[in-house]
Design a protein that fits this description.
Blueprint: H1 2-37, H2 44-67, H3 73-92, H4 98-111, E1 119-122, E2 125-132, E3 136-140, E4 146-150, H5 151-156, E5 159-161, E6 167-175, H6 181-194, E7 198-207, E8 212-220, H7 226-243, H8 282-285, H9 287-315, H10 318-338, H11 346-366
Antiparallel strand pairs: 1-2, 1-5, 2-3, 3-4, 6-8, 7-8
Amino acid sequence: MPAMKELFALVADLVPLLGTAAGVFLALYGMYWLLLGRRRDLGNERRLPRQLIMLVAMIAGTVAIALALPVSDSTRNQVISLIGLLLSGVIAFSSTTIVSNLMAGLMLHMTKAFRTGDFIRVGDHFGRVAERGLFDTEIQTEQRELVSLANTYLITHPLTVVRSSGTIISANLSLGYDLHHSRIRNLLVAAALDSGLEEPFVQVIELGDYSITYRISGLLTNIKSMITARSNLHKSILDTLHADGVEIVSPSFMNQRRLAQNELIVPTPTVEVRSGDESNPEDILFDKAEQAEQQERARFDLVEEIRKLEAQVKAADGEEKQRLSELAGEKRDQLAELGRPVGEDSADADADAADAAAAITSATRGA
C-alpha cells in the first residue's frame, strides 16, 4: 500500500508536466502548420516574420515546461536561470553558427541597408536582391544565376548598394599622344550623351609610356538598365570616334600587312538590321529580382491605400461609409491575392485575406 501511494503521488506530480508538454507540442505544431507548413511556396522575405514568431514560441514553450517541473521553487528558478544562461551562451558564442546568421539577418532588417530589387556588390558578388531571409540573402547575378549569401557574410564585408536615384556608368579607353585631349573630350561627351547618359564628364586617368587613358562617365537615372547602358556607351564610343576618324589602337599597334601612309584603321560603318523591338537583357537577367521588387512595392502601396480608406471610413457615414468599406474590402482581397502563388487553393486565399484584414485593422487602430 505505501508503494502504491507513492506511485500515485508520483503520477499526480507528473500530470501537470506531461499535460504542459503535450499542450506546448500541440501548440507549436499547430502554429508551424498555420504559419509555415501550409505555405511552403513563401519566399524568404515573407517567411521571416513567421520564423521569428516560431522562435519566440519555442522559447516560451521551453520556459512553460520548466515552470511545470515537479520540483521545489528554488530548483525551478535555477532551471529557468540555466535556460537563460544557455540562451545567452549560444548568442555570445554564435559567431560561426546558425544563430550568428539569425542575428545578422535581424540586424540587416533593422538597419535597412538594402531592399528587395536593389543592386548590391559584396566581395566578388554583384547582382539584384531577389529574396531576404532570416539566415541568408539571395541575389540574382548578371548571368541570371541565383546566389545565396549568408547574412554574416554581408555584415562582415563592405557592402555597396546602387542608389535608386541613379548611378554612374563609366568606360575606359587608351589613345595616343598624337590626339589632343580637348578633341577627345568633346567626342567622348558626345558619345555619352548619344547613349542616353546625363551630365557626362571626362577624366584623364593615366599618362602612360605609349598612350593616354581616358575615362568617360555619365549619370544613369534608370538603374534597372545598367547592363544595357554600359553596352550602349561602348557602342556609342566606337561609332563616335570612328566617325570622326579617330583610331582606337595603341601607338604600339603593329600589323603584319603593309598599309598606305594615310590609311586609317577605321571599320566601315554598316546598317544595323533590327527585327522588331529589342528587349532589354535586364528583363531576362534579373527576372526574379524584378518580380520580387514589384510585388513588394505593390504590397506596400496597397497597405497605404487600405490605411487611408480605413481612416476615411471612420470619418464618413451613410452610403459613403458603405462605399468606402466595400472599396477597402476589395483592396484587402487584392493584397491577399498579391501574396498568393499561382495555383494556390481558395482555402489558403481566404485565410490570407482574413490575416491581411486583421493586420491592417490592428495597424490602423494602433495608429
